[in-house]
């Protein structure tokens, strides 16, 4: 069964919900952005080290059996 939606009521409800949103402060945005960049850098370093270790291990195994 199809419902008819009143566009004006919908817009009023959307405005009411948006008014409830707690927007972050500029300081919070800056700090979380910095934390994201730090975590991305740490993750990149971790996976680079894992890649180097796996590559060295495989080269060692292939050299031993090659």
What can you tell me about this protein's structure?
It is a single chain. This protein has a domain at 24-65. It has two helices and no strands. It has helices at 7-20, 26-65. The mean pLDDT is 93.
pLDDT < 50 runs, ≥5 residues: none
Helix/strand order: HH
Helical run tally:
2
The proportion of residues in beta strands is under 5%
Tell me the distance between the termini: 71 Å
Number of E-type strands: 0
Share of residues in helices = over 70%
Q: Which structural class do the helices and strands define? A: mainly alpha
What's the topology here?
Blueprint: H1 7-20, H2 26-65
Q: Brief overview, please?
A:
The chain has 66 residues and is mainly alpha-helical.
Task: Sum up the structure in keywords.
mainly alpha; elongated
